[in-house]
């Protein structure tokens, strides 16, 4: 038991509130995840909560987050509304989390994202705007606003949710794919830039996953990359990425092979391989 709690008991004869002890204990690790109300975000929150982590759940779906907090499924948790495309909302998220974590953030999972699939010229401009606002601006906002918490936490790690679509530009996913190229580049740059602060930055690159978002891709682009993978598999990969040393973790054998070959092949063969993988 930390010294401050022993002193508290000796002076007042009572224990501090249990939630205070849990979140301030040196034995508890703290993670924050965006886009936590469903899909990969929720599976990841559950995975780390089962390992005893204190979990901060944030999402634009306020009711969904409150329902999760009320469910009793997350005994060590906090959460609230956050629109990652709004920097002031992200600042509020970080302040809220800090109040519950004792200003500690061992793991940030930068997960929130949106996707629209279809021919570039046929998608409404609002769909393109949404992907740019959430996947690019949102990811940037979260990293920038969380930096202070990460810097003051020894050995902090960031796992960004990238995508197999960052290996090569994907037809009918042009803007989504481009947004994940941005996340990939941002990951590599910050992993170098933040080493002076003892902050490691990495990313995971799943292919099509069995979620609502993944089904939208499968409907628009039937492909060989569609795999029998679900959000729990991604959550496990996020744990491995957080514990590893690489800056990129492609998911699945086909994706890893594609990732390797794309770095070696000339453009003509890169394009041919991508067309092959996108065929049924």
Topology of this protein?
Layout: H1 3-12, H2 18-24, E1 30-34, H3 39-50, E2 54-59, H4 62-70, E3 77-81, H5 87-101, E4 107-110, H6 125-151, E5 156-161, H7 174-193, E6 199-205, H8 212-220, H9 231-243, E7 249-250, H10 253-262, H11 267-277
Parallel strand pairs: 1-2, 1-4, 2-3, 4-5, 5-6, 6-7
Looking at the overall shape, the CATH architecture is 3-Layer(aba) Sandwich
Beta-strand residue percentage:
5-15%
Fourth-tier CATH superfamily name? NAD(P)-binding Rossmann-like Domain
User: What's the domain count?
Assistant: 1
The helix tally amounts to: 11
At CATH level 3, the topology is Rossmann fold
Tell me, what's the shape?
Answer: globular
Structural class: alpha/beta
Distance between the termini: 58 Å
Q: Characterize the largest beta sheet: strand count, sense, and whether it forms a barrel.
A: 7 strands, parallel
CATH class: Alpha Beta
Helix percent band:
40-55%
Q: How many individual β-strands?
A: 7
Question: Low-confidence segments, ≥5 residues, pLDDT <50?
Answer: 1-25
Mean pLDDT metric? 87
Structural commentary:
The structure is a single chain. The chain is an alpha/beta fold and 280 residues long. It has eleven helices and seven strands. The chain has helices spanning 3-12, 18-24, 39-50, 62-70, 87-101, 125-151, 174-193, 212-220, 231-243, 253-262, 267-277; strands spanning 30-34, 54-59, 77-81, 107-110, 156-161, 199-205, 249-250. Helix 5 (87-101) packs parallel to helix 6 (125-151) and helix 6 (125-151) packs parallel to helix 7 (174-193).
């Amino acid at each position: 038991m930390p010294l401050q709690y022993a002193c508290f008991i000796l002076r007042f004869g009572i224990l501090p509130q249990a939630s205070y002890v849990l979140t301030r204990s040196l034995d508890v690790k703290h993670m924050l995840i965006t886009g936590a109300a469903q899909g990969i975000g929720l599976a990841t929150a559950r995975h780390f909560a089962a390992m005893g982590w204190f979990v901060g759940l944030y999402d634009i779906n306020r009711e969904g987050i409150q329902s999760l907090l009320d469910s009793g499924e997350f005994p060590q948790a906090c959460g609230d509304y956050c629109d990652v495309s709004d920097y002031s909302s992200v600042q509020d998220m970080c302040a809220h989390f800090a109040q519950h974590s004792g200003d500690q953030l061992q793991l940030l999972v930068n997960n929130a994202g949106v996707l629209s699939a279809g021919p570039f010229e046929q998608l409404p401009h609002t769909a393109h705007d949404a992907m740019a606002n959430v996947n690019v601006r949102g990811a940037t906002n979260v990293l920038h606003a969380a930096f202070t918490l990460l810097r003051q936490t020894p050995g902090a790690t960031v796992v960004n949710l990238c995508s197999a679509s960052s290996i090569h530009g994907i037809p009918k996913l042009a803007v989504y794919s481009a947004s994940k190229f941005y996340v990939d580049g941002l990951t590599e740059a910050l992993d170098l830039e933040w080493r002076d602060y003892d902050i490691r930055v990495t990313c995971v690159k799943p292919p099509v996953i069995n979620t609502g978002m993944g089904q939208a891709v499968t409907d628009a682009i039937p492909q060989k990359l569609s795999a029998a993978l679900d959000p729990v598999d991604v959550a496990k990969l996020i744990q491995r990425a957080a514990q590893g040393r690489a800056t990129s973790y492609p998911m699945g054998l086909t994706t890893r092979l594609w990732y390797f070959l794309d770095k070696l092949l000339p453009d003509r063969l890169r394009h041919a391989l991508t067309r092959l993988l996108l065929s049924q």
